[in-house]
Amino acid sequence: MEQRISLITLGVTDLARARDFYERLGWRGQEVEETVFLQAGGSALVLWGRDKLAADCGISDDTPAGFSGVVLAHNVRSAAEVDDVMRAAAEAGAAITRPAGETFYGGYAGVFTDPDGHPWEIAYNPGFPLADDGSLTIPDFG
Amino acid sequence: MEQRISLITLGVTDLARARDFYERLGWRGQEVEETVFLQAGGSALVLWGRDKLAADCGISDDTPAGFSGVVLAHNVRSAAEVDDVMRAAAEAGAAITRPAGETFYGGYAGVFTDPDGHPWEIAYNPGFPLADDGSLTIPDFG
């Protein structure tokens, strides 16, 4: 298995609402067969009906929705940019689960959940520099 | 907000078990402060304690574990490669939730869950070609 992730699919209960949320944050994608594909670097974020996603995986979805156990992070280049994205997310209808503030690793970050409860951390981490194209390379902790 | 994902963090209940699982599939990473970082293209997969991850997000984790609502996909270049990865995952302790088979989109795919129940689809999708570096570009559906 090569070390890469091709797609990250978020199960949603209202595709139009989910697409609108990400579009209000500036994301653009394509909808085909009730699925929205949003390019994200060399991977793609996908929005698809949660019921279809569970069935497609052969997994039952019969427990109450709670913490998904998966968090997506979007790293930015400054604390001010964290504040900008957190404000835009709140305006687009996100729930702020952790207001932006200083972090234990010397950065600045906040967390919101999208309309389906998927958490996003928006983080400025001076120890994880971003390339010009936004890609992130884990530093050598050696 | 730029259109990209920096980190994908999976909450795990046993970090050593989770790391061992991904290492048996050929992934390599670095552990620092009870967190495992595994480079994945221009993003990184991160393994971290589920309890810490929930607390860090300001989200309570008090519902029974069920379908996370998030699925990671690893696309490969042939049906035979799907079979290879699915076999390796089963040998590493994955649960096969959907055995590999032909898909409605003319491809071939299967789904397994890792030791913490995070689903991975292993897919050969002839409509989503991969670049030499493994990156995926969503085709123009227009």
UniProtKB/TrEMBL annotation, chains A, B:
A Pfam family matched in the record: Glyoxalase
VOC domain segment(s): 4-125
Source domain of life: Bacteria
Listed name of the protein: VOC family protein
Organism taxonomic ancestry: Bacteria, Bacillati, Actinomycetota, Actinomycetes, Pseudonocardiales
